[in-house]
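User: Fold this; tokens only.

Assistant: Input:
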Amino acid sequence: MSNILKSLLIVLVFYSCEKNSNMEIKIFETSRSGNKLNELKEFSSIDYISEISLNPDKKYQTITGFGGAFTESSAYLLNQMSKEKRKEILDAYFSEKGSNYSLTRTHMNSCDFSLSNYSYSPIEGDVNLEYFSIKEDMNDIIPMIKEAQEISKDGFKIFASPWTAAPWMKDNNEWKGGKLLPKYYTTWALFFSKYVDAYNEQGIDIWGFTVENEPHGNNSSWESMHYTPEEMTNFVKDYLGPQLEKDGKGDIVILGYDQNRADLKKWVDSMFENEESSKYFDGTAVHWYDSTYEFYPNELQYAHNKAPDKFLIQTEACVDSEVPHWNDDDWYFRKEATDWGYDWREDEKKYLHPKYAPFNRYSRDIIGSLNNWVDGWVDWNMILDTQGGPNWVNNWCVAPIIVDPKVDEVYYTPLYYVMTHFSKYIRPGAEIIETENTDSELMVTAALNPDNSIAVVLFNEGFEEKNFNLNLNGFSKSITISPQALQTITLNNY
């Protein structure tokens, strides 16, 4: 491109900005080159320009929120840190200056990211749950939640998920695998209601539940309890929904399924088969572990079309089977990470689990999900140690924040910044809006916030910078996104 043409383009951009002098535009970027939500104000010369156009008049789903999970592992680690570092971490997640998380998860009874196996109903035969107690949560999880509540200006929603009922309620009498015995369906429904009351007594409101974490199971690797789609539908229809309704808790959200997207169709077919089956289901929960790169748009679209007025929330995601790389930002951009499927998936499906960069995985999935009707996206553990634990099963994973309690140090991985690109700038009540993008190598999504600001998030997975015009209502601005970078653009007074 000639220097004359470059100059002309720049003049045109500036002229356009003058015509929209009240427009406030800010650009934040996280990149392999070292940006960490850095605000950008200068861009390289323009060689190639693609077009990204926003249409706020065309709206899709309303956003519920973004966030992570309060696990016993995370809360225990937080308790090992100094008072100053503890507050720093919670501020990073829940303050307006930090990620400003708005949607969170926790576990009912123990899970794989607990320090031991435990149940709130430990007494065998206690069908009326007279000995129900959340004492296991009092030292770690509940203090973490309450401190987060004090920091969060806007507040955040919490939904809870059981991994398993107590072994005495199951057909195999084990923590791992097995099914809930039909004679304890009433007891297990009451368990959810008791949990709401117990947490409410601690000043914590429960917004919703998933019925069961990963009802397919996990090859009996840690706590689990199995349902078929029909079994879960019947449990909710005949027991859980009526129990919560009877106890004055009918407004609490119930999300069905809560596992990987590849099997989504048969679950929503059962849950939303008719008015009777769907009465108590408020939406669907999904995980991402079927593939390291595929976000299953067809399945998500199918689930939305099956229940267009109900929630569709990504409730768990993490880079699993990997020990975190301490203070090595570049590792998160390199395609070296593996997950469980890399080693254990059936030969015909191993192609879904190549080595893949964690930064790319998060960025790609969140944008892909938002562009296919997902209204909430929740990460797994908020905090893990340098080993990817601790937990009772030695199930190592990566978290956005890694800590070393022995020396009271904190490492904010690039994944922390990925989450913040969405949670900080796309707020609850925002609506996903239409975008048009002429560059197939750029992923983009956009949302209209309740305060009438617009947030645009772009992902450039390639190794070359990209230049584009951002167009809105006659306004146009030329912007550059770095290679291997995530960028959030905010527009006010448009």
